[in-house]
Amino acid sequence: MNYTIHQLQIFLKVVQTQSITRASEELFMTQPAVSIQLKNLQAQFDIPLTEVVGRQLYITEFGKEMAVIAARVIQELENINYKTQAFQGMLTGKLSISSASTGKYVIPYFLSGFLEMHTGIDLVLDVTNKSRVIESLKNNEIDFALVSVLPDRLKVEEELLIENKLYFMGNQAERNEAKPLIYREEGSATRLAMEQYFETHEGKQRKRMELTSNEAVKQAVIAGIGHSIMPLIGVRNELLNKEIHILPAAELPIQTDWRLIWLSGKKMSPVSQAFLEYIRTEKQNILLKHFDWYLSYQEGG
Question: Would the pLDDT of 21 be above 80?
Fold first, then answer.
């Protein structure tokens, strides 16, 4: 056997994405380069790792078992690096967090100081929709999740970070009833809050459309395509530039809390424990430094 670590890393990415095209994109490699490395790895085994049916790539049972072993090998190599750094007096290891998409306006400010203090830590931050965040947490694939609504039927512990305020917004100061409502995709906490609000206050009579990210919704509102209920935390500059306006609506804003959650009873790594302690110690300083405008915001102010 003469396979390389690089080949194992490429194979794991192919297994994860189920696609040579997507694997090459995520690895910043060309498709032919990925295919060659996968072919060279396959040459080490008499049993197929993958198979193509039609135009779809599938991982064989043997390939799936090899992927599990390969993942352990890669992890052990990372552990060697972490252990070397630890003996040099550094806090080392990996911190993995999955965040609901609007959380991208929150979590970086709670990470920056911690990562500056501990340069031996590798961060994996996945920004996605709420459904994927909760799935990752449920499968114990991550250390922490950042959400604004607690998951159902999953025992978790939490650390509150900052309140989440949702307002009804448009690109003009006046509400235009002819404009459609713009919703986030299924599985989004903002989508759920918006549906509940309009079912309670206005019913389902208004035309609607669906976009798959908070940024896409924001740009559509700026362009005048429609109105939407959006998190205040993501539109500071647009409010200042008067590209977006908060529209009058009864019983708004909707208020929840951004919170860091983890599985109840989870045995934390030294890195996870250190991050949680950092959050608890520095939270008020972070809020004052980066979110004073947000916490003191008054509608029309």
Answer: yes
Confidence of residue 84 (pLDDT cuts 50, 70, 90): low
Tokens of residue 119, six digits: 């340069």
Q: DSSP strand E in the chain: where?
A: 50-53, 56-59, 93-100, 121-128, 144-147, 156-170, 181-183, 208-210, 228-231, 245-246, 254-263
Amino acid at the residue 29: M
Long-range Cβ contact pairs of 43-48 (< 8 A, separation 24 or more): 44/1, 44/2, 44/3
For the chain, the domain total comes to 3
Nearest to 67 by CA among 23, 140, 28, 9: 9
Residues 175, 212, single domain; the answer is yes
Which of 188, 261, 262, 181 is CA-nearest to residue 229? Answer: 181
Residues 201/288, Cβ–Cβ less than 8 Å: no
Structural domain span for residue 249:
164-256
Same domain membership, residue 179 and residue 157: no
Q: Is residue 135 part of a domain?
A: yes
Looking up residue 271, the CATH number of its domain turns out to be 3.40.190.10
Report yes or no on whether pTM surpasses 0.70. Answer: no
For the cut 80, the answer to whether the pLDDT of residue 17 exceeds it is: yes
Reply yes or no: is the peptide bond before residue 248 cis, omega within 30 of 0. no
In this structure, the answer to whether residues 209 and 95 fall within a common structural domain is: no
Whole-angstrom distance, CA of residue 228 vs CA of residue 170:
7
